[in-house]
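ok trying this again, last paste got cut off
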Amino acid sequence: MAFIPRSEWGLPATWPNRRVDPSRRTGFVVHWDGGPNPDDAADEIRLLLAYHRYHLHTTKTGGFDYNLAVGPITGNIYEGRGLDVVGAHAGGANTPNIGVILIGGPGNLTEKGQQGLRDAYALACKHTGRQLRQLAHRDVNRTGCPGDDIAAWVHAGGLSGGTVPAGGGSTGGPRFRPGDITVGVSVKQVQERLVAHGYNVGPHGIDNDMGTDTISAIRSFQDDQGIDVDGIVGPDTWGRLSAKPGTAKPTGLKAPAFPLPNDDWYFGPKSGPKQSVSGYYSHRSDLRRWQQRMKDRGWDINPDGLYGPQTRSIAVAFQKEKRLRVDGLIGASTWAAAWTEPVT
């Protein structure tokens, strides 16, 4: 378990929002996303970046809403906005409270997740110089967040007994930031190769700027190739980017588990039957994950978590391209293909 500064997992090194004196903090609020759980350490960061993009472009809160995040796989504490910045996690209660999100949804209160939350709480208490109130999101807003199990655990004093991460979060050895290039090429060259392989580097295109969209594209490329997903352009990543598109064969690709109850269900219009999940009433973060994946592959789609004409149109085009059943519905096969089929 370690403390991971925001600049090491993909957020800006500094955060412009209003600072809060530690003396004004009185509570520590636990949240969840309610969506899919991460599969591994790299998936924790992928989900955090998805949260950041959603908060930046859809909810318009300025980016990642939480002061801290905790990974249920690693127990790592990820710095979000930071302990001294106003969050956007709990309407009307952001100044007095430090907010932490346990990544994922049902089933994410693992032993590692519990210990990470305890350590995050200990870190927050040390920062403020006092014992903060242990709160679930539903204690300060009308919401079901963070689920019954986590809320009960928090109310029972589950946050007590943590240890502040030693050494400022350093895990020893060399550390690189996502987006670092270690092979002597320019950002422009990396972007050119990403575009050649069919990845979306953001609305400004090839601009020689290592922004969050380019880092996301690097991570998606690494994920597709079955190599370490760290957002760093090292020799292996550059070697695969340098290959002729279509010749750098992916290995060991794995799609995240289909998030709906069974293979008879699908993401589709809200006017459909019970098995048609539109994102308007549930599973919005899951549909947003598929949409973001398609955006990372180069499709022009807004990852808003809602099934509409744009999502249907892209699903149809994708199904035709990959020779899947063409119905515009995102069932188990269309879901998996977004990860396992090559980018063309």
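PB: full thing came through this time. Residues 21 and 45 are 29 Å apart (CA to CA).
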